[in-house]
Design a protein that fits this description.
Layout: E1 3-4, H1 7-27, E2 34-40, H2 44-60, E3 63-69, H3 75-87, E4 93-96, H4 106-112, H5 124-131, H6 140-151, E5 160-164, H7 171-179, E6 188-192, H8 199-203, E7 208-211, E8 229-232, E9 236-239, E10 247-250, H9 255-258, E11 264-265, H10 272-289
Helix pairs in contact: 1-10, 2-10, 6-10
Length: about 290
């Protein structure tokens, strides 16, 4: 039976640690970290996620600002909002919630964000600094996963890590982070994706599997070796009439099959998800303390 990596409990520990630091800042008369979020449109998942971030700020004692705009806002208008946040000395860090409406270029918006306030870690400057192993804001999901590995004291040096997925938000940065000369890190990394043949044969050789493909139940029991560390990044809504909501949340890992074989495993929900939000708070604290650069 695998050891369950409890992201929910770990995220709460991180929030408690941050709250203590905020109390210390307040006691010493220093500026309180301030996180802003920009939400465009009425996407239900995005609204829920942003509201969660606002609640997280309240819990740790951060200041927070939520800027909501209709889906019809023009690209030029949104870029002006970004410029205003860049120039606002009260805002330490901010995020522009994705996805954006089709008429707005995500790349243009991302590149307009001041890298020193880019607590989502999506700006090319932060990505480049991460690749060079320089201080940078690391995107929240990979940062949260690194925190889990570190806090559970999971050995990574010399291990074979297979990352399934190559998105620029999760898969690619995870592969880079796990191969860097740090802890967690020092892995030999293989990246698999939708065009990879015989993924199961490759993943079965891995000491650590990070599944970030976005396909519910993709990683099955016969695709992992005994004692492997399995990190499930996926979260997909699957119809389930037995649930009040009408759906269940499923990860990329077939938990029932993989858990008996794994050494460590993250559940869905309650694994990587809560750590993503906790990592955003950590980045915001770093931004306020100007320790990222």
């Amino acid at each position: 039976m695998a050891i369950i990596i409890d992201g929910k409990a770990t995220a709460q520990i991180i929030r408690d640690e941050i709250a203590e630091k905020v109390l210390e800042l307040r006691k010493n008369g220093h500026k309180i970290p301030h996180l802003a979020a920009v939400l465009v449109g009425n996407d239900g998942a995005s609204q829920t996620y942003v509201n969660g971030k606002v609640n997280d700020c309240r819990q740790v004692g951060f200041e927070s600002t939520l800027k909501k705009f209709d889906a019809g806002i023009s690209e030029a208008e949104l870029l002006k909002v970004v410029e205003e946040l860049n120039e606002d000395p009260e805002i330490d860090g901010y995020i522009v919630q994705l996805p954006l409406p089709e008429h707005i270029s995500t790349q243009k918006v991302t590149e307009k964000i001041n890298p020193e306030k880019d607590v989502d870690g999506f700006h090319p400057v932060n990505v480049g600094r991460m690749v060079k192993n320089l201080p940078a804001f690391i995107s929240a999901t990979p940062f949260g996963i690194m925190q889990l590995l570190q806090r559970y004291k999971i050995e990574t040096e010399g291990k074979h890590c297979v990352v399934i997925g190559r998105s620029d938000i999760v898969g690619t940065p995870m592969a880079i982070l796990m191969s860097r000369k740090t802890y967690p890190g020092n892995c030999t990394v293989t990246v698999c994706h939708s065009r990879t043949k015989n993924i199961g044969e490759i993943s079965k050789e891995a000491d650590i599997v990070i599944a970030a493909l976005g396909k519910a139940g993709f990683l099955r029991g016969d695709m992992v070796k005994e004692g492997a560390v399995v990190i499930d990044v996926g979260i997909t809504r699957v119809q389930d009439a037995s649930k009040k909501s009408g759906y269940a949340l499923k990860g990329d890992v077939n938990f029932e099959e993989v858990e008996p074989k794994a050494g460590y495993i993250t559940p869905v929900p309650g694994g990587v998800g809560p750590m993503t939000r906790a990592a955003l708070l950590l980045n915001t604290l770093l931004a306020a303390q100007k320790k990222s650069y």
